[in-house]
Specification:
By secondary structure, this protein is of the alpha+beta class. It has 8 helices and 8 strands, in the order αβαβαααβββαααβββ. Helix content is about 35%, strand content about 25%. The strands form 2 sheets. A 5-stranded mixed β-sheet has the order 1-2-3-4-5. The chain has a 3-stranded antiparallel β-sheet with strand order 6-7-8, covered by helices on one side.
Length: about 260
């Protein structure tokens, strides 16, 4: 009985090994097809001598970006890679980052990568007259490789109503910030800065998804001198709260079934 068990386990081991080899040889993925494989690629940009001489503290910059693999459909994979091509993130190539002393670090965070949706946010930080940081967010369908828009996932007739709902949260945040800044100097600094801030229909395409809901993103674009008084610009709603706005036959319909 012990000998039979040993032989059986040995057969199973070889079967599993050759199955794994077969997957590698045939290209079949060992992961679910509703997500991608993301490998972090890190490089250190070394600036030329002329730039380094003028800016000795900025001789190098660290760049970390994703290498996307893992989909059987080559056309979809190609579209995703094109959307996330380095030059398409912040309109700068690696060479331009190397030749310019501004960049300190380039990085990314994967917010969501399953259920046929890839949600990823890139960040670049650097220094000119002041330290600065920018973000670029992408939500991509893993079914066709296209950027997901509000029109794709929300009911068209309710887009205006949805924008108004998000705007109410923005205005609440503005009131809270204004209430907190009580000194005359602070009030003078931000005088009129909030007057034109409104979450409108055109902002609806900027949203990030998670397992529990959706976060709508808003960039007020305040200058550095009053950046500390800028609204955070992230407004979260659960899928339950957004149920009447989400298309049941769209990519987000799976979250409200």
């Amino acid at each position: 009985m012990q000998r039979f068990t040993l032989v059986f386990l040995t057969v199973l081991s070889f079967t599993g090994f050759y199955a794994s080899v077969g997957q590698i040889r045939t290209g079949r993925p060992s992961h679910a097809e509703d997500r991608v494989i993301i490998q972090r690629h890190r490089i250190v940009l070394v600036r030329n001598a002329d730039v380094a001489k003028l800016f000795p503290n900025r001789r190098t910059a660290v760049v970390t970006y994703p290498v996307i693999t893992g989909l059987n459909n080559p056309a979809v994979l190609r579209r995703i890679r094109l959307a996330l091509e380095f030059k398409n993130i912040f309109d700068y190539s690696l060479k331009e980052y190397r030749d310019d002393p501004w960049l300190t670090e380039f990085n990314y965070v994967v917010d969501y990568n399953r259920n046929y949706l890839l949600d990823i946010t890139f960040t670049q930080s650097g220094m000119a007259a002041y330290p600065d940081e920018q973000h670029k967010h992408f939500l991509i369908s893993l079914k066709d490789g296209q950027i997901v828009t509000a029109q794709d996932v929300f009911e068209s007739k309710k887009l205006n109503s949805l924008a108004a709902m998000v705007d109410r949260e923005l205005q609440r945040e503005i009131k809270r910030i204004a209430h907190e800044n009580r000194s005359p100097e602070e009030k003078e600094m931000v005088n009129g800065a909030y007057d034109s801030l409104k979450f409108e229909l055109k902002e609806l395409d900027e949203f990030s998804i998670g397992p529990k809901g959706i976060t709508f993103l808003y960039d007020a674009g305040f200058p550095h001198v009053i950046k500390a008084f800028e609204p955070r610009g992230k407004y979260f709603f659960t899928y339950s709260e957004l149920k009447s706005y989400i298309k049941r036959d769209g990519l987000l319909g799976q979250f409200i079934q």
